[in-house]
Write a structure and sequence with these properties.
20 strands; 13 helices; four-stranded antiparallel β-sheet; twelve-stranded mixed β-sheet; 525 residues
C-alpha cells in the first residue's frame, strides 16, 4: 500500500504511488461535428491530450461555475473581465484593463482595446454589457447567476465603446470579484436560449465535438494575448479512474484529472490543494430531518477521521465548515464534529420518545463518480446511520439526476440527504454563505430569517470585520441551523506526462487553463 500523501498549502508534490478516482456523467445533450475538421491530430507533439472524468453537458459560458463545463470553457474558449490569482488571491485584469469604484454599489470597467472574438468581431462594452445582462438578468437561470448573484439583478450602462458601469442593487464591496465569474460572449448571443458551443475571445476555439467520443479545441490564431504553446487540445472522458491513469502511463494522453490515491498513476501522479469540501446536506424542511436532534445524530454518526484515512488515503482532512483555509471567513478555531455513535443513538431515542418518526425511510443521494471513493463513502455513512437506528437507502445518479435535488426549487419527494462537494475558488465566504446558508439560497436546504440577517450583515462588511463576521457565521450555523454534516476538505490529484510542464493549483478542479501548459522542453522566458 502506498504511503499517505502530504499536501501543503500552495505546493504541489510528485507522488510515489497515486492512481485514480472516478467521476462519470451521462451525456445530456447531443453534439454536432464542425465541418472540415481534422480528427487525426492525436499523438502529435503539438497536440495536448486530456482525459476527463466526464463529458461536458455543454460549453455554455453562463454555466461555467459547473465544474464539468468550466474546466473546458473558462479562459480557454471564453474569458472574463478579471481573474482571481489562485496563489495570491489578487483580482487581476483580463479583458478589462482596470476598474474603479464610483460608490458603495457601482464600479466602472475600462476594457482592453483591440480585443476581438474568434469570429473576427470586436469586443466592446456593448458585448460586455450583453454578457452581464444575459448571465445575471435574463430568464436563462444560468448556474453562474445562482452561484454568484442569487436573485440580485445588476444595472449595466455602456459609457463608450471601451467603458461600462456595473451597479448592484445594494452595497456590494466585492462586486468586481462577482463580475469575474461572467464569461464574455458577443452581443449577438441569444438571450433566451443556451449556446452549446460559444464564441469567445479566448486562446482556443472549438474545432469539432463528436458527442460521446472527443472534443477538440484549436489555437485561436487571432488571439489578442500571447499565443499558447499547444496548437490543439483534445479532450476525451473515461468514467473509470484507473483507465484515465493508464492512458497517461501508456502514452495515450498527457493529462488525466480527478484521480484518487489507489489505482496506479505512480510517479506521474501530482497532488495539490483544490479547495473542495465534501458534505452531506440535510433536507431539514422534511420530517424527521426537521428535528435538530436528528440532524445532530447524523453528525455524531460520521467518522470523518476514518473516512479520510481509510478511503481517501490521507488526501484531505476532516472538515468543520464548508470553506477551506485561505478563503476569507475561514474559522481556524472550529474543530470537526466528534464521532460519538452512542450520543447519536441517545438523541434519536429522545426524539422518538417525543413522537418524531425517526425510522422514516430516507434517501441518501450521491452523484456517480462525484469524487474518488464516493460510493464507498456513502456506504460507510449509510452503515453508520443504520447502526444508530435510521432507515437510509443509497441512490446513485448522474449529474443531471442530482441537479433537481441540488438547486432550488427542490422537489417534494420526502426526506433525503444529498452528498455535495463545494469548492470556493473565489476566495470569499460570500460565494458559499449566500447560496448554502441563507434560507433562500440557491443550494440551501433551509434556515431562519434571523440567521439570514447575520449572513447579510457579514456580506456588507470589509477587511478584518468581514473576516470576523463570516467566521462567526460558520461557528453559529451548526448550533442554530445545522443543515450539513461535513466530511472532509479534499485534495486533488492528476496524472501528468513528463512531456508537459504544468503546475496545478487550487482552481484547477474548476478551470484548467490550457495557456498555462507548455511542452517540458520549451524554454520559459
Amino acid at each position: 500500500m502506498s504511503p499517505a500523501l502530504s499536501v501543503q498549502q500552495g505546493r504541489t508534490h510528485r507522488v510515489a504511488a497515486i492512481a485514480v478516482g472516478a467521476l462519470s456523467l451521462s451525456l445530456v445533450a447531443s453534439g454536432c461535428t464542425v465541418a472540415n475538421s481534422n480528427n487525426g491530430d492525436a499523438g502529435n507533439a503539438d497536440t495536448l491530450r486530456i482525459v476527463l472524468q466526464e463529458e461536458p453537458p455543454t460549453l455554455e459560458a453562463c454555466d461555467v461555475s459547473m465544474t464539468a463545463i468550466g474546466v473546458v470553457t473558462r479562459s480557454n474558449i471564453t474569458e472574463p473581465l478579471a481573474e482571481r490569482n489562485p496563489s495570491t488571491g489578487a483580482l487581476e485584469p483580463k479583458l478589462a484593463e482596470s476598474w474603479v469604484q464610483n460608490s458603495d454599489r457601482e464600479w466602472t470597467f475600462r476594457l482592453h482595446p483591440g480585443v476581438t472574438f474568434s469570429d473576427g468581431s470586436p469586443f466592446e462594452a456593448a458585448d460586455a454589457a450583453h454578457s452581464i445582462e444575459r448571465t445575471v438578468n435574463s430568464d436563462l437561470a444560468c448556474n453562474v447567476e445562482g452561484y454568484v448573484f442569487g436573485d440580485a439583478d445588476l444595472t449595466v450602462t455602456v459609457v463608450d465603446p471601451l467603458t461600462l458601469t456595473v451597479a448592484a442593487p445594494e452595497a456590494d464591496p466585492i462586486l468586481p470579484l462577482r463580475v469575474s465569474f461572467i464569461e464574455m460572449v458577443p452581443r449577438t448571443t441569444s438571450m433566451t436560449e443556451r449556446v452549446r458551443q460559444p464564441i469567445g475571445t479566448g486562446p482556443y476555439v472549438i474545432d469539432y465535438w463528436n458527442a460521446g467520443q472527443k472534443l477538440s479545441l484549436v489555437r485561436n490564431e487571432t488571439y489578442w494575448g500571447d499565443a499558447p504553446d499547444y496548437a490543439r487540445a483534445d479532450y476525451q472522458w473515461r468514467s473509470e479512474g484507473s483507465v484515465r491513469a493508464s492512458m497517461v502511463l501508456n502514452g495515450e494522453a498527457e493529462l488525466a484529472t480527478s484521480l484518487g490515491p489507489e489505482d496506479g498513476a505512480g510517479e506521474l501522479g501530482v497532488a495539490y490543494p483544490n479547495n473542495e469540501t465534501t458534505a452531506v446536506r440535510i433536507q431539514l424542511e422534511e420530517t424527521p430531518l426537521d428535528d435538530i436532534r436528528v440532524r445532530q445524530a447524523i453528525n455524531y454518526s460520521v467518522n470523518r477521521d476514518g473516512i479520510v484515512k481509510a478511503l481517501f488515503r490521507g488526501l484531505g482532512e476532516p472538515a468543520a465548515q464548508l470553506i477551506s483555509e485561505g478563503v476569507i471567513g475561514y474559522n481556524d478555531e472550529l474543530t470537526p464534529w466528534p464521532y460519538d455513535p452512542d450520543k447519536a443513538r441517545a438523541l434519536l431515542d429522545e426524539a422518538r420518545a417525543d413522537g418524531v418518526p425517526v425510522d422514516t425511510p430516507i434517501r441518501m443521494i450521491g452523484r456517480t463518480g462525484q469524487f474518488p471513493k464516493v460510493n464507498e463513502t456513502l456506504e460507510v455513512i449509510q452503515n453508520a446511520l443504520s447502526k444508530i437506528g435510521m432507515n437510509v437507502s443509497i441512490e446513485m445518479t448522474d449529474s443531471a439526476g442530482t441537479a433537481e435535488y441540488q438547486e432550488r426549487p427542490f422537489p417534494k419527494v420526502g426526506p433525503y440527504l444529498l452528498v455535495i462537494q463545494h469548492g470556493n475558488q473565489a476566495g470569499d465566504a460570500a460565494f458559499t454563505a449566500d447560496q448554502y446558508l441563507r434560507s433562500d439560497g440557491f443550494q440551501s436546504a433551509g434556515g431562519t430569517p434571523e440567521f439570514d440577517a447575520r449572513v447579510a450583515e457579514a456580506g456588507a462588511k470589509t477587511g478584518i470585520e468581514r473576516q470576523d463576521a463570516y467566521a462567526q457565521v460558520f461557528a453559529d450555523e451548526p448550533k442554530e441551523v445545522m443543515q450539513m454534516a461535513f466530511i472532509a476538505h479534499m485534495n486533488g490529484v492528476l496524472a501528468k506526462a513528463d512531456s508537459v510542464d504544468y503546475a496545478p493549483n487550487s482552481a484547477t478542479v474548476d478551470e484548467m487553463h490550457l495557456a498555462a501548459m507548455t511542452r517540458a522542453d520549451t524554454e520559459r522566458p
